[in-house]
Amino acid sequence: MSAPSNFTVFPPRTATPLPLVFDSPHSGFELPADFAHQVTLDELKTGWDAFVDELWQPATQLGAWLLAAKASRMYIDLNRAPNDLDPALLAEPWPESLQPSRYSERGMGLIRRFALPGRPLYAAPLSVAAVQQRIRDYYQPYHRQLRTLLQDLHHRYGSVWHIDCHSMKSRGNAMNIDADTARPDIVLGDADGSSCDPDFTDCIQHSFQRLGYSVAVNHPYKGGHCVRAYGKPAQHFHSVQIEINRQLYMDEATFRKNHLFNGFQADLHQVSASIAEFIQAKLAKSDFALPS
Fold it and tell me: Cβ of 266: how many Cβ atoms within 10 Å?
């Protein structure tokens, strides 16, 4: 399988593109043929950021780029560091040093150990070669594309803004730090202010709040690998993670869109417009400018 088929790039649909990239690493649900899981399809879907790429796609009408993965994050999680791997998942020692994070400790690392609490994904450990293949064919191409988009836009405009798009269960489960707690409508993660200038986070927060949504910042999600790897505000790379409460647009039991979907998508378009205006104002004050 050719690597580019494992993700989709939606380019800007406007004559004046912006240095703005949305990426959705968990909205795909393709299950590769070698994915020998032992759980049900519905259990796999619980980790699916269903329709998140579709929700944000109208942002391309405002000049943004959108990158969306195709494979299920249960197969490989693109929002984890490549060495965030639980050694207990492996049939033999990994050839390089590993740095399993708290996500791996809870069964949600680069390769997930559990689909849900107490529900192991695999009946037997995975070979090193099988995991390396997932990294080579799925993880590396996605991050190569994301990195290229961000670097090219930064070179052209002097700054780039990146939004890592996710959805979250309306209540945490036993694998989450907020187990059995009702969640707000929106959670923004900027790694405690280290992945972007605070005015970018403020812009997004206020945009949602003006529309009546409840917003939390850095709890229970501070931002995963994507914002931490690419957010370098001192160098004018600004990254924020956005988590959307699934009950705002879908039925969590059936994994289908609900009657709120279209209205919520329209609200996200308004949020995207506010972000676009924010970026245009920033560029107007810099030595770089949008093409006339």
Answer: 11
Contact 25, 226 (CB under 8 A): yes
pLDDT in tens, 135-161: 999 999 999 999 999 999 999 999 999
288 pLDDT higher than 80: no
Domains of the chain: 3-284 (3.40.630.40)
Do 85 and 109 meet the contact criterion of CB atoms below 8 Å apart? yes
Closest listed residue to residue 237, CA positions, set 158, 164, 143: 158
The partner residues of 232 in beta bridges, in order of sequence, read 237
> If you search the block for the tokens 């949305």, which residue do you land on?
22
Task: Determine phi and psi for 61, rounding to 5 degrees.
Answer: -70, -15
C-beta of residue 239 within 8 angstroms of C-beta of residue 208 = no
- Residue tagged 């992945």 (tokens): 195
Calculate the alpha carbon distances from 76 to 136, 155, 194, 262, 275 in Å.
11, 30, 26, 30, 30
Q: Using the structure block, give the residue that is written with the tokens 């930064």.
A: 154
> If residue 258 lies in a helix (H) or strand (E), which one and from where to where?
none
Q: Given its phi and psi angles, is residue 191 left (phi above 0), alpha (psi -120 to 50 degrees) or beta?
A: left
